[in-house]
Specification:
single chain; 59 residues; mainly alpha
Length: 59
């Protein structure tokens, strides 16, 4: 809940971009990432790409 409130308080696209990058790096280095099947990994990558495109449009 605290993390959600922090994200909702952001007012600039750069803040969202930094949070997205931090999330992505944490996900890539998480110990359970290797256990996910290729479908889930592909979905996560597509979600990341969509969010990056969105942030590029609003910044």
């Amino acid at each position: 809940m605290e993390a959600e409130n922090e994200l909702l308080s952001y007012t600039e696209a750069g803040q969202y971009e930094a949070a997205l990058n931090e999330f992505w790096e944490a996900w890539l280095t998480h110990e359970n990432t290797d256990c996910l099947n290729a479908g889930i990994q592909s979905e996560m990558l597509m979600m990341y790409k969509h969010l990056r495109r969105f942030l590029n449009r609003i910044s």
